[in-house]
Amino acid sequence: MATAVANCFFSVLTSSVKFRCCVSSQRYLATSHHSIASVTCKAVANHKRRPSSNRDRELKEGVSQKKSLRKSKDDDDGISGKRKAGGSQSAAFKSFGAQRKDKKEFKFDIKEQQVEPNNLKDAAFLDAVVKVYCTHTEPDYSLPWQKQRQYTSTGSAFMIGNGKLLTNAHCVEHHTQVKVKRRGDDTKYVAKVLARGVDCDIALLSVESEQFWEGAEPLEFGCLPRLQDAVTVVGYPLGGDTISVTKGVVSRIEVTSYAHGSSDLLGIQIDAAINPGNSGGPAFSDQGECIGVAFQVYRSEEVENIGYVIPTAVVSHFLNDYERNGRYTGFPSLGVLLQKLENPALRACLQVHSNEGVLVRRVEPTSDANRVLKEGDVIVSFDDVNVGCEGTVPFRSNERIAFRYLISQKFAGDVAELGIIRAGSFMKVKVVLNPRVHLVPYHVDGGQPSYLIIAGLVFTPLSEPLIEEECEDSIGLKLLAKSRYSLARFKGQQIVILSQVLANEVNFGYEEMSNQQARYL
C-alpha cells in the first residue's frame, strides 16, 4: 500500500514527510521509510560525546568516522563508486614519506610545482575555497534545560564577495564557534553566521578580519548546466588536510529531496565523488564558473556515484531573500496535497476534457490557498504555464520537471495565478504564497527547545529532533501518526507532550509516565 500511495500522491514543498534528518555521531543522515537507501549530508565530525541509542545503532551500521576510513568494497559510504578511503589515505602518506634525495629529481619536482601562466585561472578559483572548522553544541531534547557535550566538525566554504562566504546550513548547525582557514595559510579566522536556510541547506558567513581577504578573488556564479557537462567539485574532505579536487559529469537535473531541510527543490545530480567534508564546497564548470554547492549523496547498496549539488538558481534565491528582508524567510509553499490525473475515468468524472491538471486532495488550513481552493478542484495552470496530468511542467527546451519547481521560483508573499477547473467550469484565482507552517517542526528555531516543569511534570513541544532522540518506539504509534500526517490549524500550534516525570513526593505514582500528549479539557 505504501508503494501505491507514493505513486498516486505527491506533495507541494514537502506536505508529506519523505526524508528525516537525524544527527549521527559523525554526520547528518536522512532515511526513507520505504527503502534502504538514504541521503547523507556530508560534514566531517569528530565527536567526543557519548552516543545515544540512535547513535549506537548507527555506529553498528558502519556510520561512524572510523568505519568511513575503513570502507570495504561493499560498504563505501555510497559516494564515489568503490574507491577505498583508507587505501587512498595510506597511499597519500606513502607518497609524502618517500622523499627523493637525487638532485636532478629534486629540481624536477620544484619545477613541476611552479604555476604556469595558463594555470593562473585555476589557482585563483581554488584559492577562493576555504576550510570551515565548527564547534557545535546541540540541545538535549529529552532534557531541554541542558545541552549535550560539544563536538567539532570540518567542512568547506567559498568566497562570494562583499566579505561573505557560502557553506551548507548543516555544517554550522547549533554552532557555538565557527572558524575558517584559507588555502596555503596556517591562520584560522573567526567567522560569523549571518543567515541559515534550513530548507535549502545554505548558510551565509562573514569574516571581519581584513587580513583574511587580502588578495582574495570571489567566485563567479554560472548558469544551470546541461546534461553530460563536465563538473569539478572542490573542498576539504576526509583523507587529508589539503584541498581536494574530484571530477565528473552532470547526470540529472530535477526537483530533489533536500535531506537536511526535508524539502523538495531543484538539484543537480553528478557522478563526481562527494565525501565527508566536501559539504559547502563549490562545483565548477569547465569555464571556471561556480554552478552550485555540494551538499549530499544518495546512499544505497543498489546505486553508486550519486552526489548532489545545490544549483545557483537556489543559491541566488537564498541570497536575494536575505537582501530583501535582512534575514532569510524561506521558500514558499502552495499548501495543498495533490494527486495525479492520469486515469481517464477520473478525468471524465471531474469533467476535465484535456490530458492535463492535478487534483487538489487536501488544503492546509494555515495557507492562503485555503481561502480560494477546495478539495476536488483541478489545477491546470500556474502563472499561465500548463500543468500536465503527472504534475509536471515544461522545463528548458525538451524536458519536463515537477510542478513544485514553479512554486520554488517565487518568494514569500508573492502572488501566483492559478487556472482551475471546478465542477466543469474553468476559472482563475490568485493565491499568496508563504512558507509552510509545520505542526511538528523539523528544526527548532533558536536552537534550544522550550519546556515547562510543573510539580515535576516536564512538558515540551513535539519535534522531529525529539522523536529521533527518544526513538519512534517510545513515542507511540498514535502520536507518531499525528506528527507525520496532521496539519496545523493555525500558526503557532504545537503538539505538547508530557516528556517525563521527575520523581517527587508530590507526583508519587506517576514516575513511569512519559511521552504522553497533553490535551485541553
UniProtKB/TrEMBL annotation:
GO BP, one annotated term: proteolysis
Pfam families: PDZ_3, Trypsin_2
UniProt feature, compositional bias: Basic and acidic residues: 53-64
Region (Disordered): 47-98
Entry superkingdom: Eukaryota
Keywords assigned by UniProt, alphabetized: Hydrolase, Protease, Serine protease
CDD domains: cpPDZ_Deg_HtrA-like
InterPro entries for the chain: DEGP_PDZ (IPR041517), DEGP_PDZ_sf (IPR046449), PDZ_sf (IPR036034), Peptidase_S1_PA (IPR009003), Peptidase_S1_PA_chymotrypsin (IPR043504), Peptidase_S1C (IPR001940)
MF terms (GO), sorted A to Z: serine-type endopeptidase activity
Occurrences of domain Protease Do-like PDZ (ranges): 440-517
Family statement drawn from the similarity comment of this UniProt entry: Belongs to the peptidase S1C family.
Listed name of the protein: PROTEASE DO-LIKE 2 CHLOROPLASTIC
Lineage summary: Eukaryota, Viridiplantae, Streptophyta, Embryophyta, Tracheophyta
